[in-house]
Amino acid sequence: MQDRVMEKAAALLESGVCTRVLGWKTGEFFYDVTPAVFTSAEEVRTQMVYNPFCGPNLSKYLIAESRKEGKIAVFLKPCDTFSFVQLQKEHRIARDKVYAVGVQCDGMIDMDSLKALGLRGVTAAREVGDNLIVSTLYGEKTVPRREALSLRCRVCKSKRLNDCDEIIGEQGGDLPSDRFAQVEALEAMTPEERFAFWRSELSKCIRCNACRNVCPACSCEKCVFDNPGSGVRNKAAADSFEENLFHIIRAFHVAGRCTDCGECSRVCPQGIPLHLLNRKLIKDMNQLYGPYQAGADFDSKPPMLAFTPEDPEASIITNGRDGQ
Amino acid sequence: MPVNETFKPTIVAFCCNWCSYAGADLSGTNRLQYPANVKIIRIPCSCRLNPMFILRAFQRGADGVILCGCHPGDCHYTTGNYYARRRMTLLFSLLDYMGIERGRTRVEWVSAAEGAKFAATMNDFTETIIKLGPNRRLEDLRCKTE
Amino acid sequence: MQRIGVFVCWCGSNIAATVDVEKVAQTLAQEPGVVYSTHYQYMCSQAGQEMIQNAIREHRLTGVVICSCSPRMHEATFRKTVEKAGLNPYLLEIANIREHCSWIHKDKLTATEKAVILGRAAIAKVQLNAPLTAGQSPVTKRALVIGGGIAGIQTALDIAEAGFPVDIVEKKPTIGGKMAQIDKTFPTLDCAACILTPKMVDASQNENIDIISYAQVEKVQGFVGSFSVTIRKKARYVDETKCTGCGLCTEKCPQKKVPNEFNLGLDNRRAIYIPFAQAVPKVAAIDPNYCTMLKSGKCGVCAKVCTAGAIDYKQQDQLITREYGAIVVATGFEPIRLDKFDEFAYSQSPDVVTSLEFERLMNAAGPTGGTLLRPSDGSHPHTLVFVQCVGSRCDGGEKGKSYCSKICCMYTAKHAMLIREKYPDTEVYVFYIDVRTPGKNFDEFYRRAVEEYGVHYIKGMVGKVTPQDGKLKVQASDLLGGRQLRIDADMVILAAAIEPDKTARPLATMLTASMDTNDFFTEAHPKLRPVESPTAGIFLSGACQGPKDIPETVAQASAAAAKVIGLLVKDSLTCSPCTAKPDELMCNGCSSCEKVCPYGAITYIDKPFRGPNRTTLIRRVAQVNPAVCQGCGACTVACPSGAMDLQGFSNQQIMAEVDAICR
């Protein structure tokens, strides 16, 4: 897969299909893979990587890149293509300036999962069959690949590659996923426990804005939190209220637009499970207004921009589903 | 939680101009009493209510926030309250999920003819808030003047 | 720096009895920005208003807060007051200390305290008020009526009578619509053609009416007062200005096997045809799907026989663009297709017909010349079974429609009565769920069918119709008698549900007019504005809004015309300035706002913006048409970036009120 992606990238540049390629390159460490734009086959061959650490969703970069001169090729994993479609639905990406290559994916590995397996001093990792051979300062270790998967990939919702010009690997379909299990566990708690849970999580927030900056749905020209005119401008959370406010408003603004790509939790330096806020809203919308997957198609109407006269009343929440 | 006898909650009621604000006017015209804790803010339509306004009210010291609009199907702008209903349902669900007391927020549909319902709703809502006690989970301590 | 004046009204004792008005005025005088604060017995009186005006001039006020009765009562009054003193009328806020305070509280201390808080909120808001100017938009004094049935004709006639030019766009080669196909009308049993065709002639002869037949609306731009509509006039291959309607071509055309849609395919017409004798315009049209000349270039008989030289095989579709001030939708209805109702053997036996087909079979100008004959063998039917609610009032709605089609009970009573009157040797059965006859003289009409004409009304549904040995075996249940019935019928007539015309949905999209789940147009208010669409300048006439009989259709058609006339007499429209306004610098162009706007007031343009290093970025940004926006604010919350705000109720203004109340 690695070779095919690199070859494709080089070939697209050489044949003139595109003038730039949006892919990944290695950062300071082998595992901190970062998005990058390549302008020549030479650059692709020397710098581009595609490996199980290529978690970053590249679709958001297309907002800026597709406005530039010339066509850009982009490599998208199945979950990334949902963001790609959603952003097109919101008229953010000029589709004719993009050559989309879908790359089938077996799930991405992340360092947190390796650490959880007790691995320290990791220097390299390579896939062999269903296993991952991890080089560490203390020697080589073999771990089953599925145990090293990032949390979001373990509950993968779809292997479908949406709206690609070309596909590397097989086209996939939607998967049964128990991605709402954690949300359900929280719902089963008492309000006091939930309050304590979210306080302990959100109090860790340092307002670095990484979640916002990486989120493909949070792509406003100017965020309300940066805008003095919005009345909620806020650069740093000075109080528990402001810690909550930022995340409530963020979750609400992306409701019906969030594709559940999981980038927010991936980049959070404090390890806050931010995706649980978005997933809660996705779960509610599915239950209350019918199943909806943002970015799955071009035609369906997002639930927050639609209604039916028979929608349930807000009292189903305020009266308590299970009594107060 | 013991009921605090001296607790005087601050309650913000957002009312749409066409039905609920007129319903509130009617409860005044009919001299129907409800607690002075309730302060009404007029908005053109329930769909004008941005979740930010609700959070802002809690931040600044409100203990309860209620939205009143036209009954579904009777919106002056045809569809506004349908959008408001979805938005409020999801916002309230998210607040509940974060452990905020469910009773602190409410939506009621009050028509221009329902002065009695408006007063009854405000009486009931104030009672609920007094039972819940002061808002502690969504407060901003810097905004407290005491 | 703001210079705000506060005026506390006593409203006689209405406010002053429970609110210490003096204290309120004194306390509010301390608020930042307030330079003048006073109280008076009746602010709305002449003296009170002069007091406000003098204070505005004397203290050079930049904002006015009046603590008084509900803004629903006197906001308009006080806006005029401040405007006369030279202040923008939108730099005024009202604190409702009567309905929302003095009238509901008994304790003076509490009420005074609350009045102060309400006053503070109004002061906080007025600090942020911006002067707003109501815009004017011109009105094009011409109306468009889409659909030339009885609804469209009546609307057009009424508008034309008032002196305004009006165009009727009709998709068929003639106006007349469904009513032209109907034989007799209930509850008077006068002939439809006798009352419709004079109106059709009136429409064609009225100088203010232009009938654009065989045409459809292709594109709609603009907004109330100034719509620009592109109409495609289909090629009829006959020059309308030359054709005299003599009909010779329609007799000589060798292509005789074209199903005649006017008779619902019960007989055939030629490839060149005039839909019916009283068609308006009475001009032939060539059906390009059947004309040998157009298909293979061989024939040309019609051109040879036409003495007027009207045939033009090279005619092309024509695009007409015109400006209108108002648009009336009168697209009407169609009976539903019955292929999902196989149990009634509609597709298996020609003797099972729909009610509209039955109208043609009874009509003197129909395929049988008005003699009721079985379509299968031309024999005289003796036993006829009517089935009501075929596709109406269906639960779940998968097979049919969930609504009542409203007209079927009455026309079935009419059919049954007409048969019994003309052919006393017949037995007529009507199977129904309920008989619904609300309407003037309707129930009397139905009772006559039962009592005087001996029609057998049986409560119950027909389960199955089976064609067998030249008969139709009807199995049905009699719910009141509690028994199963088997009837050997000669004909079965199905009261098919009616649904909006298929062209309505794409038209609604063009007009940004909203529709319900059944594709009926929705009205601006179900009770109080029943003939207007929520989209300003779009009006509804007839069955496009819901099932209707002829009297109701005509009533609504005239009501729509009255609304149109009320709009067209104005030279310009004053728009409320409290409309949504996007900040282009923040707009993402994501279309969220557009999707929730009930009025179609939001459009998008690609606009160049200055980027870094002297570059230009083209961005899609929202535009609000203030003439169309009604100021509900749905868009402001749908907008994730907060680029969309509502003038007069801005985010900052509402939050300032919140802050003042929660302080």
How many β-strand runs of chain A? Answer: 9
Using the alpha-carbon principal axes, give the shape of chain C.
elongated
Class by helix and strand content of chain A?
Answer: alpha/beta
- At the third CATH level, what is the topology name of the largest domain in chain C? FAD/NAD(P)-binding domain
Order of the strands making up the biggest sheet of chain C: 10-7-6-18-29
Give the N-terminus to C-terminus distance of chain A in angstroms.
54 Å
Approximately how much beta-strand content do the residues of chain C carry? 15-25%
Ordered list of secondary-structure elements with their pairings:
The complex is a heterotrimer of chains A (324), B (146) and C (663).
Chain A: H1 2-14, E1 20-26, E2 33-38, H2 41-47, E3 48-49, H3 61-65, E4 72-76, H4 78-89, E5 98-103, H5 111-116, E6 122-128, E7 131-136, E8 139-144, H6 145-148, H7 151-154, E9 166-168, H8 181-187, H9 191-202, H10 210-214, H11 240-253, H12 263-267, H13 275-289, H14 315-318
Parallel strand pairs in A: 1-4, 4-5, 5-9
Antiparallel strand pairs in A: 1-2, 1-3, 6-7, 7-8
Helix pairs in contact in A: 1-2
Chain B: E1 11-16, H1 20-29, E2 38-43, H2 51-59, E3 64-69, H3 80-97, E4 105-109, H4 115-132
Parallel strand pairs in B: 1-2, 1-3, 3-4
Chain C: E1 4-9, H1 21-29, E2 34-40, H2 46-58, E3 63-68, H3 71-84, E4 92-96, H4 98-102, H5 108-127, E5 136-138, E6 143-146, H6 150-161, E7 166-169, E8 184-185, E9 190-191, H7 192-205, E10 209-212, E11 215-223, E12 226-233, H8 248-252, E13 258-259, E14 268-269, E15 272-273, E16 285-286, H9 292-296, H10 301-305, E17 318-324, E18 326-329, E19 333-335, E20 352-354, H11 355-362, E21 383-390, H12 408-422, E22 427-432, H13 442-451, E23 456-459, E24 462-468, E25 471-478, E26 483-489, E27 491-496, E28 498-500, H14 504-511, E29 538-540, H15 550-568, E30 572-574, E31 580-582, H16 592-596, E32 602-610, E33 616-624, H17 634-638, E34 644-646, H18 651-662
Parallel strand pairs in C: 1-2, 1-3, 3-4, 6-7, 6-18, 7-10, 18-29, 20-27, 21-22, 21-27, 22-23
Antiparallel strand pairs in C: 5-30, 8-9, 11-12, 12-17, 13-14, 15-16, 19-28, 24-25, 25-26, 31-34, 32-33
Helix pairs in contact in C: 1-5, 2-3, 5-18, 6-7, 6-15, 12-13
